[in-house]
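Internal QA ticket QA-208
Title: Verify multi-chain structure generation after dependency bump
Assignee: T.L.

Test input:
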Amino acid sequence: MLTTSMGREPWTADAIAALVQPDRVHRSVYTDPELFELELERIWHQAWIYVGHESQVRNTGDYFATEIARNPVLMARHSDGTVRVMFNRCAHKGVMVARARTGSVRSFVCSYHGWSYGTDGALKSVPLPDGYKGTLVQVGNPEFGLKPLPRVATYRGFVFASLSGEGPSLTEFLGPAIVGFDDMVERAPDGEVEVYGTCARTITHANWKLFFENQLDAVHAGVTHRSLAESARDVGRSRYSDPAQVPKVVQNIAMHEPPDAKSFWTKLNSSNYRYGHGFLGGYQEHRGQDSATLEYESLVKRNHGEAEGERRLARNLHHTVIYPCLSIQSQFQQLRVVKPIAANRTLVEIWHFRLKGAPREFLRRNIAMAANLANTPATPVSCDDYENWYRAQTGLKAQAQEWVSIHRNFGDDRVEGDSVHSRIGTSEAFQRNQYAAWAEYMKQEA
Amino acid sequence: MDANGNQHVDARDVERFLFHEARCQDDPARWDEWLELFADDGFYWIPYSRAQQDDLDTPSIVREDKVLLAVRYGRLRHPQAWAQDPETRACRLVGNVMVDGRSAETGELIVRSTFQMLEFRADKTISYGGWAEHHLVPGGPAGWQIRRKRVDLISGDGAYEEIMQALP
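Actual output:
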């Protein structure tokens, strides 16, 4: 049991259970540093957490260094072809054996005293081995390797790991939200995706959960992104006499209109599942009639059949949230990875994926419409989201009101077994589901 | 005039153009003037990595033509651009300007420079640095027009403390 540094009572099970109610969340859930530490133990150390994609470690010895809930880990391609995930920590003094975020090695050699490890993490050699005679430090003793993560699993090339040896399988954990990965991969004419080089990396000065509250929020766009949408409409009107000639990327930005009961947003229902996952129907008309899109669509149908191809192309998801670590924008092949650093600090890394077998012009179109627009460190879209999350994080310090509202369309959720569906796209049903999952995780004693 | 029919270029003249550009970027009242420094088919590009060869075959931090730049700057000036309340102020220092010749394909003048930019907002100052590569053609009120501006940040693939709102 953690004790608080503030002289308060420690967080008892009852005290934590009182923080999330069906229609409101206590502000300390976002701001309290001790609760943040408990979240790491009870959520982030239990759930399946995204590590990376297999295409990041294509060849033997390739590695990718990342973090799972602040734990430094390595994903590496071993000589037997398998992808291994292990802690990035020398068994000798605890030194990280890899510092660069990517690289290729024959073995991991510690920069301090030269202990070396295979790409499977096994200890290969130590300097001055005679000094270890009669001790537990021996090549072959797994206790002195780079320790593997307790569980590692891969779904269609997406590698996950869990710091817990127990819990649901990866596919059981993902549940129906697995469609986010299916949608991304099945859009590839060749049925596979691979990462483009590096990712966009931005710090949000806010709690990690504010990011997830935002992903399926169908009301904020018309308010938060109003400036960009109105600018896009102005540019469209002033530069093009024929509205059909306005570039698609500008048309998509211009779609965000102020909250309106008759808007398309109300029709995009969210579907929400166990462990806090969920998705919202898509609104961006991604198909288009341009020659690049038509060529791409004909390839999907040629490779997978007319009916199956059409099914793959017609699917339209906005974002799919894999709680607590991912948001997938599958129709544009963007994967937002959330890394908690502190109660008020979160790293967001956005990976961009290439659809294998897609025509170059179509890939360039997707890069222009998504990767370069809403998913970069200079995005004119999300900068106003980041601003709002910061303002929320700071506003929640106010002692005037203790609660955050998740009331919109409360009482109207359609519950089917352990899934929750909104009846209107602008419902906060998905937030209620996220916090129900949060409460479920947090009541477990670690 | 050289063998390809290109006028001799005065390096000081090109340097003055880059200083003029930085001054337009620094002053919100002159942002339209900055946009008009671009040729109609010009574009602005910040790749993640210096190794990136093509501007659209892989994702970039910024890759905007004149239309998208106009959308970006329309937002910056909009009264409900929340991340501009309070506003960003930025200044740019441009140096090491060298005329590095002409593109064999297009004949555009290639100019390389080094820059530092400070971006201040809400009590926090962030510094950016890197290299710019301008592809220029004669024309426009400033004497040159930008067909392409490539900016390589030294922090290209790093973690950004804030979303960049000022462009180098």
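Spot checks passed. The interface with chain A takes residues 46, 48-49, 52, 56-64, 67-68, 70-75, 78-84, 157-165, 167 of chain B (CB under 8 Å).
Status: verified.
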